[in-house]
Amino acid sequence: MSIGVSLGAFAEGFASSLQAKKDRAEREAGAARQDRWLDILEKNPEILSAGGSLGSTPSTSGRAKASGIPTTADAAYIREGLIKRGMPDYIADGFLMNFHDESALNTSAVGDNGNAFGLAQWNGDRRHGLNAYASQKGVDAGDADVQLDYLMSELRGAESGAWKKIQATRTPGQAAAAIVNYFERPAEQHRARREASYLAYDQRPVLGAIAPAY
After folding, report:
1. 144-156 and 160-167 helices cross at what angle (nearest 10)?
2. DSSP secondary structure string, 110-170?
3. Which among 167, 169, 192, 197 is positioned nearest to 181, based on CA atoms?
4. How far apart are the C-alpha atoms of 144 and 210, rounded to whole Å?
5. Nearest 5 degrees, angle CA 169-CA 173-CA 175?
6. Phi and psi at residue 63, to the nearest 5°
7. S-S: 70 plus which of 75, 88, 173, 199, CB 3.0-4.6 Å?
């Protein structure tokens, strides 16, 4: 066997050994992250029982619990619809968090003693605007796509000021907070609680593949 062949075989074996060590280290790190997150869940079962996501921050005294981004089939449809309409994905996530709190993603949800309707719980003149928009399209106001189209028309028109503030954000939590503050504008006690919850989402523990990273 020539020296060249021997050195080549040695280099190949050395590289293979290094890759094997790297793979083993990554598996061990992943298992450690999984164990840490399972420990968090065991000590804070309300994360799952309250409908939180695996990316949520455990509820602790004096700190707002982080809202999770819904991951149901309805949520996926709404998120995809917003992104197709030109919305950045992290802002779409911010709207999902707000829609979940407003209507549980139910496009036919009615609230505020029958005055609010739909994903965003449009109220007053804004609800009348949704109804008129749907009527012009010949579609029921409870249709998901007509509500997403109406949302985008608001952001380009009457709610363009709110849209500028939402676009100035950089994370899902920041976007969700801007949405509740400038677009949804609920009563103060709800606004403050939701803003704190949304901002807490950005501070959640990010444990490898378990929690999404932005």
Report:
1. 90
2. EETTTTEETTTTEEHHHHHHHHHHHHHHTS-TT-HHHHHHHHHHHHHTTTHHHHHHHHT--
3. 192
4. 30
5. 35
6. -130, 140
7. 75
Contact 102, 110 (CB under 8 A): no
What φ, ψ does residue 58 adopt, rounded to 5°?
A: -55, 145
pLDDT at residue number 63: 47
57 DSSP 8-state letter: P
Beta bridge partners of 110: 117
Distance CA 166, CA 162 (A): 6
- Name the residue among 124, 147, 151 with its Cα closest to residue 134: 147
CA 43 from chain centre, in angstroms, equals 24
Lowest model confidence (mean pLDDT) among 20-29, 114-123, 182-191: 20-29
- 116 CB-near residues (< 8 Å, 6+ apart): 110, 122, 123, 127
Integer Cα distance of 114 and 117 in angstroms: 8
Structure tokens at 207: 């444990």
pTM of the model: 0.68
**At what angle are helices 188-201 and 89-103 packed, to 10 degrees?**
140
